[in-house]
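Example 5.3 — Aspartyl/glutamyl-tRNA(Asn/Gln) amidotransferase subunit C
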Amino acid sequence: MSVDTATVKKVASLARIAISDADADRLVPELNNILGWIEQLGEVDTSSVEPMTAVIPNTLRLRADVVTEGNQRDAVLQNAPQGEHGFFTVPKVVE
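Solution (predicted structure tokens):
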């Protein structure tokens, strides 16, 4: 894949970045070099590498799924700045 000046200008306008014609001409070879490196990564044989989600092994620390006391609406609403009819009351943000 190759990038030309028109493509650089289009990408800049999509990103809402104002660039001059001289800057666009200067960015063409730089972006082509970056795309060349990406193409080189596509040539690497990764068939023996298993997919992973992180570089280091992570395990999630989960709490036990234990049934606790429920039905504490009044106690929870005591923490609210305002409550009405068993619900949190918040300021209106949409007219």
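Remark. The mean pLDDT is 89.
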